[in-house]
Amino acid sequence: MRKYIDCREHPGEVECSLKVSGTEDEVLNTIYDHAIKVHGEKPSLELRAQLRGALKDEEEPVPRRGPPGASPHQAM
């Protein structure tokens, strides 16, 4: 299952609208670097654990039916 984290859900001193989604490792690695570089967090195992705990499951998109580019309301 894909994961995501949205900075807007974690207000702080820096206004940030970044949302990252992907595999758990992709999101965790990206947001860990982001938290350090943009939000001024100190690198630590505790930060990584805190961020891992803040990850949420991303709802999987509903599979498309019909040819690519077809309107979902178009009759088949």
Can you walk through the features of this model?
This protein is 32% helix and 13% strand. It has 76 residues and is an alpha+beta fold. It has one domain. It has a three-stranded antiparallel beta sheet with strand order 2-1-3, covered by helices on one side. α1 (24-37) packs across α2. It is elongated, with a radius of gyration of 17 Å. The relative contact order is 0.20.
In short:
The chain is an alpha+beta fold and 76 residues long.
Question: What's the SSE blueprint?
Answer:
Layout: E1 3-6, E2 19-22, H1 24-37, H2 45-54, E3 56-57
Antiparallel strand pairs: 1-2, 1-3
Helix pairs in contact: 1-2
Domain unit count = 1
Sheet/helix structural class: alpha+beta
Q: Report the portion of residues in β strands.
A: 5-15%
Written as H for each helix and E for each strand, in order along the chain, the element string is EEHHE
Largest sheet: 3 strands, antiparallel
Mean pLDDT level: 87
Total helical elements = 2
C-alpha end-to-end distance? 30 Å
Low-confidence stretches: none
Instruction: Report Rg.
Output: 17 Å
Q: What strand line-up does the widest sheet have?
A: 2-1-3
Q: How many strand units? A: 3
Morphology: elongated
Give the tags.
76 residues, alpha+beta, 2 helices
